[in-house]
Write a structure and sequence with these properties.
By secondary structure, the chain is of the alpha+beta class. 60% of the residues lie in helices and 12% in strands.
Length: 360
């Protein structure tokens, strides 16, 4: 990039001098572009080094004096390096042209001092400013990432006691009716908490691992419902390696159980499915419960710790490239659809938002 930009500068400089020579009727050989290109190539070599120097040593109040002194010395070194390289080119050119003996050394010294000041104030100083701007921009982005990570960790930690509270309530309700089932539920809850601790605070996992965690959670819930809860997992094989936020499905399924199938007297059913269209991953959780309650309008109610926290996590992780939609199904029951960028890489790259297709 540096050589490309300075090459354009060299071309503009040559064309300007060429037009000026032509207007004066003086010869303007095209071969004179080569010295101009070599001249500006020195700048091209020193530009990334100078910017990197400014990036690595941004101005700070505690070290401002030492840094300014370092920048001044760096400017002197920059100008000397440019001057030496430039005069070397002229000397080599004069040697082959046979004009090195007629070189005016006093004029050479004056040109060196003139270019010395120009190199420092016209080239070196703007490059240092660019490096400082890039350094502060990087620090600002790093601070944004740290704040986002802190927010995600706070939201994630909010989910854990939420489902733990509900699981303990379920165990408590079984203690006086079925001690063996309550003991088995405690064992499953122990496995669930172990999986949470082993996650080590990670924000993303694969869909297959998320389904494994969800299976342990559902074993706890099935003990409470006995044979009154049916769970169907219909995950497309191509989506199992996709990246998803950890603890994404658990609060959605928990919401479907406690606010959906738990209110039915008949057998409850929950279906978890996934698909993708190469750009987006769609995760759907449906139940055959009474559906979402209307909230003074056509839109269903969106309250609840699980849904609210999930929305905030998705917004923080993916910005406008995500969507969480809920609706009541015509045949009865409710559906929650999560749309996030489809990625199987370790590092998630933002994708453009697209409207999801609705399945019948």
């Amino acid at each position: 990039m540096s050589f490309g930009l300075w090459g354009l500068v060299a071309l503009a400089h040559f064309l300007s001098r060429y037009q000026h020579q032509q207007s004066l009727g003086a010869p303007a050989p095209l071969s004179s572009f080569v010295p101009a290109l070599v001249y500006f190539s020195v700048y091209a070599l020193l530009t990334p080094v100078t910017i990197r120097l400014a990036e690595r040593h941004p101005l700070e109040r505690r070290q401002v004096g030492r840094l300014i002194l370092g920048y001044v010395l760096g400017g002197v070194a920059f100008a000397i390096a440019n001057g030496v390289a430039r005069e070397t080119v002229f000397l080599v050119r004069g040697f082959f042209a046979g004009t090195i003996a007629s070189r005016n050394w006093l004029q050479l010294e004056r040109e060196f001092l003139y270019d010395f000041a120009g190199d420092i104030f016209e080239i070196y100083s703007p490059l240092i400013v660019i490096g400082q701007i890039m350094a502060y921009h990087r620090r600002f982005k790093d601070r944004e990432v740290q704040l986002a990570q802190a927010q995600l960790q706070a939201l994630r930690s909010k989910l854990q006691p939420h489902f733990l509270f509900n699981a303990l309530n379920s165990i408590s309700s079984l203690m006086f009716t079925d001690v063996r089932a309550a003991d088995k539920m405690l064992s499953r809850l122990s496995d669930l908490l172990r999986l949470v601790l082993e996650s080590d605070g990670a924000q993303e996992t694969t869909l297959s691992k998320e389904l494994e965690f969800l299976d342990v959670y559902l074993q706890v819930e099935k003990l409470r419902f006995e044979d009154g809860l049916e769970v169907i997992v219909d995950a497309a094989p191509a989506t199992l390696d996709a990246n998803v936020p950890q603890l994404l499905l658990q609060p959605l399924v928990e919401n479907a159980i406690h606010h959906g199938v738990a209110k039915r007297s008949a057998k409850g059913s929950i279906r978890i499915s996934s698909r993708h269209d190469c750009k987006h991953l769609y995760l759907l959780v449906t139940d055959n419960g009474p559906g979402f309650e209307p909230d003074r309008g056509p839109e269903p109610r969106r309250n609840g710790v699980g849904l609210m926290t999930t929305r905030q996590r998705l917004q923080t992780l993916y910005g406008d490239s995500q969507r969480l939609s809920i609706r009541n199904l015509p045949e009865g029951g409710a559906e929650v659809c999560v749309e996030i960028p489809f990625s199987t890489k370790h590092v998630r790259h933002p994708l453009h938002h697209a409207e999801p297709e609705r399945e019948s």
